[in-house]
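Morning!

This is the sequence you dropped in the shared folder:
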Amino acid sequence: MHRSRRTKILATLGPASTSEAMIRQLHVAGADVFRINMSHTDHETLNSLVKTIRTVEKNVGRPIGILADLQGPKLRLGVFAEDSIKINVGDKITLDLKDTPGTRSRVPVPHPEVLEALEKDDRILVDDGKVVLKVLESSALQAIAEVVSGETLSSRKGISLPDTELATSSMTEKDYRDLDAALDADVDWIAISFVQRPADVAEVRKIAKGRAAVLAKIEKPQALNGLDDIIDLADAVMVARGDLGVEMPIEKVPGIQKRITRACRRAGKPVVVATQMLESMINAPFPTRAEVSDVGTAVFEGADAIMLSAESAVGKYPVEAVEMMDKIAQQIEIDSNYADIIAAQRGEPNPTGADAIALAARQIAETLNLAAIVCYTGSGTTGLRAARERPQLPVIALSPVLRTARKLALVWGLHCVVTKDASDLDDMVDRACGIASSENFAKPGDRVIITAGVPLGTPGATNMLRIAFISGDGKSGV
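The structure's back. Tokens below.
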């Protein structure tokens, strides 16, 4: 089985999609990677889901990626004496650390790091921006703020700080426990929430030690200040538009999405566009026209993957949502404008042998109208270089490492196949041609181009190109 599109689909699992039968349906419908949201998942459920996905993977015979999404710091108001309080624009409210119920003039904020970081004129957004407060004065023990907009405050509502960089890590104690559990469960990707600075990514990489790839979620304005360094440190990036749209003027989000997507494409790092892509399909069997256009825009931008959240986790139509996303991506990719838009956004190759080989492979394959590009990749780097070029023909990534194939399931255009490492150059060519034929990418008489590193099995040593014919027996011709 191989997809009729290059853009990958990331589907979130939840109460609507935890059974083996449903996960298999979602994969067959188009889901390439499954997301497990640790905000709502305990460790027992995590292990159960991973086991179920691996069972589906074995049954379908295709590598499937698993992403564990860490919750990150959740800042919330304390508890009020009443269920909610009424406020008016211009009211002055004191925020403090006292462990007593809040009133109309005083709000408990049980987060010392927040009061330590707040400065005059910083904004505090409550309940996804329904209430906006502006800090008039602040100390390590309390802050006085003015109500800029909003009518009601209630217990335990979330708060966002768009103008404030917290000195603390983006990892909480819960996140450290969840990270260890996810690594023990052998997931392929770890997503870090509320990244503020490159050091947040470096911290998780240090703990993961290569056991899982690290994806940085861009959902805070502070992350944009160090975006290039974050991209450099991360293995992939997500445009998490939900929280980003709360903490920044919502009209800026489309431009930020394009900025992040193009920066990742230049760097050759996978980029995921997420949040509310087919939101109406939580309760309806069809999306709105605007949602279809939104998904299409991400595909036109060349995003590696597009993500479903509540649509597949708790929605009434999880399989239909994946099928719809699959149809949209397929249609965009055959649009007459698609190839030109993708090519126009292609970045210059880095001055390395691997990038030069990837560029040459794409140019030769497109010039000669070859059937496919076949790349041998142990660590995944060669596959990423091939995908960065966004070629117009299929890319088959062959790897002897199952972990690598699962990780590359998130990457644009890569059809991943796990195979034994080649014993010599002739075996490498025969194996590449045989798999291109058996996976229905090429037929006898077609030609493929093969990239690999010589000596074989040397990580990061991509230095060889070879064009081979598919013979009548599905192997290489003379």
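Headline: The chain has three domains: 8-72+170-340, 84-160, 353-469.

More detail when I'm at my desk.
O.
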